[in-house]
Amino acid sequence: MLAILARFPYVASMSKLEELKKQLRPGQVYRREDLAKWSNAVDRHLKQLLADGTLTKLSGGVYYYPKKTVFGDAPAEDNKLVETFLKDHRFLVASPNAYNALGVGTTQLYNETVVYNRKRHGRFALGGRTFEFRVKPDFPKTLSPEFLLVDLVNNLDRLAENQDQVLERVKAKAASYDGPHLQRVARDYGTVRAKKFFAHLLADTTAHHAA
Coil, strand, or helix at residue 106? Predict the structure, then answer.
């Protein structure tokens, strides 16, 4: 068998390519170095996989093995895409659209996905979509109503709504939350302005209840 492969290098190359394909999993996102673990000629194999449609290129050095559905190829999941791009699992994917579920009067829809992380800052196109990466020293592992409320105040200047009206509704909404927990979230993840806003707000609420 080895003698045959030596006489026909194209067959050997195809054999290695098929071995590489067997390692790929639908819906997964890969970096070049991930594929290099299973290939002795990763750049040539990448060209072949892109040419035959096995992989699609999402960004420089980032590739996707599409998951087939009855509606066509499913897009890459945000978390898998971001984790592969960052080469880090420490991040939080958010969107200003999530504020609309808080009940504080925001109704605008934004074509924007925000990624809080510790490594990259700036806007990057991944898989035909734009992600805004923002470096933050701390952020929670998952979104919560308390974090979203604090995050809204953090990003108030970026919103299209009337800021004063939104803040008044935030004040009313905060009264229905657990005060000490909300204060901890503001202290841990708020900007200087947000920390002051919630500190004054919750202090006033505490004083009101005490009276």
Answer: coil
